[in-house]
Amino acid sequence: MTYLCLADLEHAARDVLPAEIWDFLAGGSGAEASLVANRTALERIFVIPRMLRDLTGSTTEVELLGRRSALPMAVAPVAYQRLLHPSGELATARAARDAGIPYTICTLSSITLEEIAAVGGRSWFQLYWLRDEKRSLELVRRAEDCGCEAIVFTVDVPWMGRRLRDMRNGFALPESVTAANFDAGAAMHRSTLGVSAVADHTAREFAPATWDTVAEVRAHTDLPVVLKGILAVEDACRAVDAGVDGIVVSNHGGRQLDGAVPGIEMLGEIAAAVSGGCEVLLDGGIRSGTDILKAIALGASGVLVGRPVMWGLATAGRQGARQVIDLLAVELRDAMGLAGCDSVSAVRRLSTRAPGTADGPASGTHRM
């Protein structure tokens, strides 16, 4: 089947997935205000295109964390991908490898990080901080040993947000899907109405991270360390002071604090505040190549894309995941050309407008 945009794949994925698994993938926390706001905020931003530019030799290539990527994009960490397709994380990792972009292995992957990294390509490892500190640092060591290029430390999940869809469904993992990187116990598979077994598991296993935790992770690895889940300018500046190599501006796809500001609304201010002190990426709500263009214009070096890649995985495994990445690549090339940009660095010099704001260009943008 021919899909012309990511919305086509979203509809197809919803048609093939059981309702409770769709809710686990698509849902947010609370009333899902932040989930909806991620899209609303992106849709409010408009780019001011430039004309009569030489587009000869246009390219979408960029450096992310010091290495070449075919697109200013990485696959975001998403848990338990074998819920969506039997090949799970192996299929999405192969799609990312073939497309020439980084793939982020999740702590809560349903296939071991060693098996996923063995696919090849560029792998980053996403870390949740566990109550067992030794086990957390062991995951970092394992990621180093199997060739991962960065530690993406998620700092916005001291415990899982109240995801009402999962609670209403009494969501639990089927016996065939487990937390492959450590023993999660049988409770993950026990369905209880009004309780998310996944959230119950994280409440038992996860511990709130602190700046001291960040320092400990930094001290235990020579890999680049990226903090995912930063929204406050003050936290972004402190991250630079802590010696991290990057931050991901993100409200966790609307799945943690409901009412948290969309990342795109803070991106320009954060990028300006850190002023090149570390790499800045955006996560949350990206649904088109034009969205990637907007994020870069506001100061991001790239974006993380999660749910859309999972839609592709659900519909057609590795081929579907690759189709999502290819669609975003086509749309980004089109958007760049129509905006008068021959490179990602040129996109960073575009100006933007958000209707209703009094101060003209959005904070942190630059004019060509």
From TrEMBL:
GO MF entries? FMN binding; oxidoreductase activity, acting on CH-OH group of donors
| Keywords linked to the UniProt accession | Flavoprotein, FMN, Oxidoreductase
Q: Which residues form the FMN hydroxy acid dehydrogenase domain?
A: 1-357
Cross-referenced SUPFAM superfamilies, in alphabetical order?
A: FMN-linked oxidoreductases
Needed co-factor(s): FMN
Q: Which residues bind FMN?
A: 77-79, 126, 154, 228, 250, 283-287, 306-307
This protein is called what? Alpha-hydroxy-acid oxidizing enzyme
- Superkingdom of source: Bacteria
Instruction: Give the binding site residues for glyoxylate.
Output: 128, 163, 252, 255
Could you name the active-site residues?
Answer: 252
Q: Spell out the Pfam families in the cross-references.
A: FMN_dh
